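Example 5.3 — DUF948 domain-containing protein
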Amino acid sequence: MWWQWGLAFCMVAFLAVSVTFIRFLLYTHALLRLGESSIDRLQKQALHTVQESERVIEASVTLIDDLQHKLDTVDAWFQAANETGEAVRRVTRSIGVISQTVEDTVLEAKRAVHSRQDTVNELIEWTMAGLAIASRFQASRQSKSKE
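Solution (predicted structure tokens):
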């Protein structure tokens, strides 16, 4: 008779373990479904994030291209200003050379006046011609700078 009670106890224990195992499997299955739905939501959110990131990157590329174009335009302006400054420096040097030449001519004219009276008229003509050239050059420079 003890073996019948032992067998009954084993059967009840087996049923309890089986029911517990089945409940564990059902609970695990529910958790897996919940995990699957969570993964689906995460995938959708990741896809949405990727699409938004692509839009932001495209907008950034467009903005950077526009900025590069504008910087190229500004660079051309600075290059033109630099070339204009260089032209002004050349003109200033030329005017300095002309002024020095005119000054040297006037000094030589003064010396010549004292040493030779007959060449005074000729030197005055040369001086006037030099001054006329200098004034024309000055007027030409001013008209070019206004353009």
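Remark. Helices lie at 2-115, 120-146.
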